[in-house]
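#lab-general

N.A. 3:47 PM
ok so I finally got the sequence cleaned up, no stray characters, all 361 residues accounted for. can someone with queue access submit it? mine expired

B.Y. 3:52 PM
send it over

N.A. 3:53 PM
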Amino acid sequence: MTEQPDGTGQGSPTAEVGPLERRYRRLLYAYPNRYRSSRGDELVGTYLDLVEQDRRWPSRHDAVDVLRGGLRQRLREQGALGLAAGLPIAATIAVSTLAALAAFLLIQVEFTKLPADVLPAQVGPAQTLGVFLWVGWLLAALATTVLPAHWARRSVAAAILLTLMVIPAAPLSGLARPPLYVLVPVLAFGLTALALPTRPGWAGRIPPLLGALTGTAVAALFEVAEGGGNWFTSYGSTIEVLGMAGVGLVGLTLTLGLVRAVTGDSSALWSVVLLVTPAGLLGIRPIADWYWGGASTWHELAATAVVLPLVGAGLLLVVVAWHGARYRAIRARSSGNPCPTCGHVSAVAQRADAGRGRTAP
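B.Y. 4:20 PM
back already:
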């Protein structure tokens, strides 16, 4: 710790604090209060030792590192580190889901020719601007399969940007686009996919390819079942299929989580909680129609699109809080037992016994 002319240390209230140190300390609010009080000076000192003396702002890498470390510490205190481990699994499943949807909707909707009086302005052989969107997500899935992790994330970010660009491009070009009840869940899955694993093994690279193949296979089966007819002539005819896909996705992820939980790995179960919101948004139209009692208006769809993420976030907070209470109860019970070797009782248990008026051995 650097000594000031008056003999006070860097952490003293009378010490001069530069703008860079002040901004690092603000970032440390990401950590819990107790951890920040005991380790804050050490963390700030480490970051200050590693940066140039003339910097006035923390680098983007340092800011992300502090925020990530603070989140992990908060989860650690709740005994919920499995949530951080489940995020890359949820991201891989999200990319795989988008690849399956892209392949299915390209074949079953976009390349289904409609009469000119039904859709006068088509995009070449495709119905809407969604053809660019779905090709973009298939390319992102391919990048996840074959490219390094940082390029895969950039490909996902580019596909998210392409999804957003489709919305203003439709009125500017006079061409149709997929409806918002399709684009909103795509954006939700895309944002989840940004958390792709840093070092993906085969378990992180194969699922996106399998997703694209699954979407293609399902579309081919529907083609055979249609017998020359067209069941899916527009996005409006895929509403029930999208809703069932959301339910099936949660079911498959839950099954995977239970299978892995048998071996003591709960990360896939955490991914179920993370995927509830994007999977629920796949059924935004049938949910809105059911709740509002009929064909929902634009405002009713918008309200449903706001409520579903709030419900998903609330569910995540409830699960984390329940897990934290259970974790603390287990620690309290285990800390009260003396060591089987030396018979010593931990300081935590001694304080608890003192608070109850008992004397620990």
